[in-house]
Design goal:
heterodimer; A: alpha/beta; Glucose Oxidase, domain 1; seven-stranded mixed β-barrel; two-stranded antiparallel sheet; 4 helices; 9 strands; B: alpha/beta; Aconitase, domain 3; 3 domains; five-stranded parallel β-sheet; four-stranded parallel β-sheet; 13% strand; globular
Chain lengths: 148, 413
């Protein structure tokens, strides 16, 4: 078990960011999944139901249907009710457009299933321009990861 | 990414700030998806309900609209998706004056940019359907998937800011479904069932969507009999896009790019298709045994066609909606006008139901609507709506059109 690991990804938007991870092998839409006034996951069937996402680096699988997130991210940022960044196995155009509009860091396309590598509570540092994500875990990092 | 002279000028601000902002946004997205260049588009469709916009989005629109007419005006025909409020009916639904004011502000800014307030997610049925190979910038996932699949148009999901950017620049980054090689089928399905109703088609789309699971997958469906109707494909596509984030499907020997299986799915030749059964489709429906108290019945998502509304009016003729249940029907302003002319609106309203224009339920501040009207249990024939709406605090139930009407009359499902 080590405490630090670096992952590379294919594409990123936004500036560097550091924060605490909130992880699930589930998908994401600001409209489908969130109570954006309270800053929590409000969809009962979501793995993060009831949890606050505000200020966290969300690590999820991919985007759900719907286009609303492209507008919603900016309003969430301006009201101080946004995640710090989005880390996805694979995004769709809507999240990329929304991230560009809101200047919210978004990265995707890893060589591994990133939702299985990172655990909630891990500290992450993301460098979109360099294509690097650094994971630090007080409890140690699992050695085996499944390839996407 | 290859940048032409006109695009470089826009980036440098020589055509005004709105187009500079737009091109900067598009360049970021294009580089993110490794686009080679920009491709010109013929029309844009913008999702801009004020719940999604929030105050930040409204202020952004107002900022762009404050520039000179030459700088702020869109460069191609541009229309809008449903709004957050029907300003002729919002008081009947206990929607707030504050939200009405937001709609008026957003509308003023959009109109100042030369955008036509069509307020519809069925523009492919009512405004100007695209044709095979036409590059467009459409918002609303249901619009994109229908236009790509049924007409063979070229569009990605363009969220509000991206569709607005396309309207200003007249182009989009060339990636995703603008690139022919990305339109090949990647997953193969077969249907061992002959769906007849709109809800069966919606359930079918939802199930395929759950299998496909992401934007970059393109399902091809085999085993269909007769060509489906426009409304059947509307419900199928909307559910598929909602449940799977899918933007393009092919129906073997039916949709225009799949008339020759090998032309669109050669890589899947010999692969065993995933079989979709009647039982899987039936499992989507709520158990309609009269045990569920129903607060609101909603026909929306997508907005209803003239034919759909005519059928509901027929089922409501001579009946009254239950006093503790509301029935809402959402359509486009064009179809609402037709309903008014044909006496359909009067037949619907006589039953106690409400026919709304230019809105779609989940875009109408659904959480606040729930609180203002004490709505919790929602019944709909839209597989898309029941997928979306639980995050807003509802308990959604999927039912056939006939069961929905009956639930509105009896107050129970």
């Amino acid at each position: 078990m080590s405490n630090k690991r670096t992952y590379s990804f294919e594409a990123g938007i936004g500036t560097s960011v550091t924060g605490e991870a909130l992880v699930a092998s589930d998908n994401f839409s600001a409209r489908y999944d969130l109570d954006r006034l309270r800053g929590i996951f409000s969809r009962r069937s979501h793995q993060l139901y009831g949890q606050s996402y505000v200020g966290k680096i969300l690590v999820l699988n991919t985007a759900k249907g719907g286009v609303a997130t492209a507008w919603m991210l900016l309003d969430m940022v301006e009201r101080g009710m946004a995640p710090a960044a989005l880390v996805l196995n694979l995004t769709n155009p809507i999240l990329a457009q929304g991230a560009a509009f809101a200047a919210l860091p978004l990265v995707h396309d890893f060589a591994v299933d990133i939702t299985l590598c990172i655990e909630t509570g891990d500290q992450l540092s993301i460098f979109p321009d360099e294509g690097l994500l650094i994971q630090e875990s007080a409890a140690g990092i699992k050695e085996s990861v499944r390839t996407v | 990414m290859k940048i032409r002279k006109i695009e470089k000028e826009m980036l440098e601000g020589k055509h005004g700030y709105p187009r500079q902002w737009a091109m900067q946004q598009q360049l970021q997205v294009g580089q993110f998806f490794s686009a080679d260049c920009f491709v010109e588009v013929t029309q844009a469709h913008i999702m801009c309900d004020t719940e999604s916009l929030g105050l930040a989005g409204i202020e952004h629109l107002e900022r762009l609209a404050s520039y000179s007419e030459e700088e702020r005006s869109v460069g191609i025909p541009t229309i809008t998706d449903p709004r957050g409020m029907d300003l002729m009916n919002y008081r009947r639904l206990n929607q707030s004056e504050d939200f009405a004011e937001r709609e008026r502000r957003a509308t003023a800014a959009l109109e100042a940019m030369g955008i036509m307030m069509t307020d519809t997610c069925i523009n492919y049925q009512t405004i100007s359907p695209p044709v095979l190979g036409e590059h467009v910038a459409f918002g609303d996932t249901g619009v994109v998937i229908y236009s790509n699949s049924v007409f063979g148009a070229r569009s990605n999901f363009e969220g509000g800011p991206a569709a607005l950017a396309a309207a200003l620049t007249g182009r989009v980054p060339s990636y995703g479904y603008h690139v022919d090689s990305n339109r090949q089928a990647t997953q193969r399905f077969t249907l061992n069932f002959d769906p007849k109703t709109l809800t069966d088609w919606g359930a079918f789309g939802a199930i395929v969507g759950e299998f496909t699971g992401d934007y970059w997958e393109v399902p091809i469906i085999e085993g269909l009999g007769d060509s489906p109707t426009s409304d059947q494909l509307k419900h199928f596509g909307a559910a598929l896009a909602s449940h799977g984030s899918v933007a393009l499907f092919h129906l073997d020997d039916i949709t225009p790019e799949a008339l020759d299986f090998m032309a669109v799915a050669a890589d899947l030749d010999g692969q065993e298709p995933i079989s979709i059964t009647r039982d899987q489709i039936r499992s989507m429906y709520a158990k309609a045994d009269g045990s569920i108290d129903v607060d609101v019945v909603v026909f929306a998502a997508p907005q209803l066609s003239l034919f759909e509304i005519q059928e509901i009016a027929r089922q409501l003729d001579g009946k009254q909606i239950n006093k503790r249940t509301d029935l809402l029907i959402a359509t486009s302003p064009e179809i609402k006008s037709a309903c008014d002319r044909f006496g359909i609106t009067a037949r619907i309203e006589d039953s106690g139901a409400i026919l709304l224009s230019g809105v779609c339920f989940y875009q109408m501040y659904a959480r606040e609507l729930s609180e203002a009207n004490s709505w919790k249990t929602l019944v709909s024939n839209s597989a898309k709506l029941v997928n979306i709406i639980s995050g807003y605090g509802y308990e959604p139930k999927f039912a056939t059109t006939e069961q929905c009407v009956e639930a509105a009359i009896t107050g129970r499902l």
